[in-house]
Amino acid sequence: MNVLRLVAREFLGMFVDDGSLALLALVLVGAVTAGVKLLALPPLLGGALLLVGCLAILLQSVRRAARQTRR
Fold it and tell me: What confidence tens digit (pLDDT) does each residue in 58-67 have?
């Protein structure tokens, strides 16, 4: 059973290296989708929000990783 867990963890790790990065990206996509569909935001604004949000999430993730490597 431990081998199966290890294989599953490694398989998931190939796709999701940083859990908070993946979670924040999913939340961002969901929020922007809801904004475009439910609040009738213009799709171009939704695209801009996705771009800015993804860049902000990536910057935060890189800063966190840089802090961890300094220790």
Answer: 999 899 888 8
Structural tokens at position 26: 């999913």
Residue burial 12-37, b: 16+ Cβ < 10 Å; e: rest: eeeeeeeeebeebbeebeeebeeebe
Burial of residue 58 (CB within 10 Å: 0-12, 13-18, 19+) is middle
| Signed CA dihedral, 54, 57, 60, 62: sign only | negative
**Dihedral pair phi/psi, residue 40, rounded to 5°:** 60, 40
Question: What predicted TM-score, i.e. pTM, was given to this entire model?
Answer: 0.76
CB 8 within 8 A of CB 44: no
